[in-house]
Design a protein that fits this description.
By secondary structure, the protein is mostly helical. The protein is built from 15 helices and no strands.
Length: 256
């Protein structure tokens, strides 16, 4: 709850309370709890330390293995994250939310074929068809298959009048179909829509990524660089780092 609200002060207090608990400090569950708090604080390096200890305490503690994957992904180690998620899949193949995690790791690696396979497997399982279709839509958008994405997007929008994820992907399709340097009215419309999504969702990292990209492509280098800097605090990936460096160089600024 504190993590979703972005309340780092209360998260820090929770961490102190965990350290004060009598007994059990070295159990997998205790290390896991610490790791989850560090993840909520967007501190993947500290989360990794706790979750590695959790695995030492219990090699098969599934929540810890999954959270370890989350920490690796947040720290920009998508390939290692995928290894953790695949281990979870071997131990608990029906675990809820696993498909979305595996998909996120493959997408970060731009492994569209593997991501598409995850989406299709999720659809076959049929437990949550809507969630699986959103996963499929994301890979279609990310891989530039805009015609197929539009068909699926229309289907999903017909069932839900307002979904932040669908609004974001609709903008991504529009941006993909437009020239990198947009007409001012199209640029202003895209920026206003993306800023609205970012403002309404504290964890709107995907929207921030798209907004930074649009800003960079349209010469708004200072604003783009600030967005990349903000994103790097919660998404330490080489893609984001390279984008920030490219933006700063385009603006003739060399202070990272």
């Amino acid at each position: 709850i504190y993590g979703k609200k972005g309340d780092k002060e209360k998260l820090a207090g929770l961490l102190k309370n965990l350290d004060k608990l009598p007994g059990g400090q070295e159990s997998a569950a205790s290390y896991y709890a610490r790791g989850k708090v560090h993840l909520a604080m967007a501190n993947p390096s500290e989360a990794l330390k706790s979750l590695v200890e959790a695995r030492k305490a219990d090699r098969n503690h599934i929540p810890s293995i999954e959270a370890l994957g989350d920490a690796l992904l947040m720290g920009g180690r998508a390939r290692d994250a995928a290894v953790s998620y695949r281990l979870v899949a071997s131990l608990a193949p029906q675990r809820r939310g696993l498909s979305a995690r595996l998909f996120a790791a493959y997408l970060a690696l731009r492994g569209f074929k593997a991501a598409l396979q995850v989406a299709n497997e999720a659809l076959k399982q049929g437990d949550d068809t809507r969630a699986a279709k959103i996963i499929l839509l994301r890979v279609l958008v990310a891989s530039g298959q805009t015609d197929e994405a539009l068909v699926l997007l229309d289907e999903l929008k017909a069932r839900t009048s307002d979904d932040r994820r669908l609004r974001l992907m609709a903008i991504q399709v529009d941006v993909s179909n437009a020239k990198p340097v947009m007409f001012k009215k199209d640029f202003d419309k895209a920026v206003a829509s993306l800023e609205k999504i970012v403002d309404s969702d504290r964890s709107g990292n995907d929207a921030t990524f798209v907004l930074a990209t649009v800003m960079m492509q349209n010469g708004q280098y200072d604003q783009s660089a600030e967005l990349w800097k903000k994103l790097l605090k919660v998404r330490k990936s080489n893609v984001v780092l390279r984008a920030r460096i490219s933006t700063l160089m385009a603006a003739s600024k060399y202070d990272l």
